[in-house]
Amino acid sequence: MDRWQYAAVLAACVVITLPLEVILGARVYRRPARLALTLVPVVLVFAVWDLLAARRGHWWWSPDQVVGVHLAGLPIEELLFFLVVPICAVLTYEVLGSGRETPRGR
Amino acid sequence: MAAEYTIAAIAAPAAVVALELLIFRTGLFRQARYWITLAIALAFQLPVDGWLTRAGRPIVRYSAAATSGLRFPWHIPVEDFGFGFALVTLTLLLWRRQAVQAEHDRG
């Protein structure tokens, strides 16, 4: 079960924030295009940072606590982290706005 | 020579703030809900990051040379809070920008 340590943390984040969408009506998962346009640049920027940092030895992952699947040189969990955490943040932000936007950008 | 992750953890939040103030100008920083979201994200970063970096058997390990060595609370490298701020703020900027642009397009 140790190999699922990191994945389990991410799963917990998804499960804990799911009621924000389902019960409190955050409407984040239900706006997939807007969500994708938000996530794609975030994943790109942070995956590149992560990859460079890992290459330069800033940090590394305990091999016995990740599932062992790697994509672009990073553990799959690390890439999922860059999806899960932003989604949790947007869910929180949307719930606080009661689903209504009042854009006043200049 | 300052530690590389320490520099990145300061530069990334600064870059994200500059992106908003100089280019995007979505008004995100004037929204109470942004600051509350940030506070909630920080509250969740403590148990999540705390577990990932926990003492004894951390899931993520950090180079002593790349970090300042400051770890708080528990074993979380303080640099991670700069990383988290940049991640959450960039996300909310991009999310909000689309609403602002849609509003603008409608006139």
Automatic annotation (TrEMBL), chain A:
Pfam families: Lycopene_cyc. It comes from the Bacteria. The keyword Transmembrane applies. Pathway: Carotenoid biosynthesis. It is a multi-pass membrane protein. Residues 6-96 form the Lycopene cyclase domain. Its main location: membrane. The chain crosses the membrane at residues 6-24, 36-54, 79-96. Keywords: Carotenoid biosynthesis, Isomerase, Membrane, Transmembrane, Transmembrane helix. It is found in: Membrane. This is Lycopene cyclase domain-containing protein. It comes from Hamadaea flava.
UniProtKB/TrEMBL annotation, chain B:
It is found in: Membrane. The chain crosses the membrane at residues 6-23, 35-52, 72-95. Keywords: Carotenoid biosynthesis, Isomerase, Membrane, Transmembrane, Transmembrane helix. Its main location: membrane. This is Lycopene cyclase domain-containing protein. InterPro entries: Lycopene_cyclase_dom (IPR017825). Residues 8-94 form the Lycopene cyclase domain. Pathway: Carotenoid biosynthesis.
